[in-house]
Amino acid sequence: MQIHNSIRARLAEGRTVTGMILFTGSPMMIEMMAAAEVDFVIIDMEHSALDLDRAAHCIRAADASGVTPFVRVPEVDPALIKKLLNLGAAGIALPHANRENCAKLLNAMRYAPEGERGACPMVRAAGYTRGDWNAYATRANRETLAIPLLEDEASIADFDALAEMPGLDVYFVGPTDLSISLGVPGATFDEPKMRAALEKVVAAAKRNGKYVMTTIGNKLDIEYGRDVAKRGVQLIVYGTDADLFVDSMRRLRGVK
Question: What domains lie within the chain, and their CATH numbers?
């Protein structure tokens, strides 16, 4: 169980951490990520077919393997978010984030008086035991990460205000949707509009003591990944397990 969010601690030390997005819902895949020394996993409930029961098994596998589990939800659904946090998710990633839905996300994720998350000590995240509730709730509010996905041109334009919001510490620049929104579908951060968007997010995040996450997709390009990290991104996502598997199979078959 996630008693201490190691990702938050590593970021505060100035370290770069790596992760992957899980589409397959396979606990074994998470164990293999751990064997490859990946630091965190984003369990996808936005695009994949994962249900709550499968997400629970994935969170347990991540905890057992020493990988920090985050979950990407499709929208702000307080009932779903409460259950995921009760299972031990260390953070919630929200697609197409803006100030309005981020405020709703924080309200759903935080115990009173900071939010309206329902309280129950007999859940996995609380260790299935009645202890010092105030100490647990305070720690949960502090350690659990709210992760807005920046996927729209409007969110980039408004990012200075979004970066100032208390309670938001990690911002995930989503290159696929963002490139479409900026009119350059499929572009990487080498493209001028995408580069400018990333630079704006990194600069504003640093001014506010926040961190930036993004994915380098399935490029398997070490230099590209290093370049993205040099631009100030401290959380590097390698892509999805499904994408990497399909791409590897195609490469083996000589298919481009």
Answer: 6-147+215-253 (3.20.20.60)
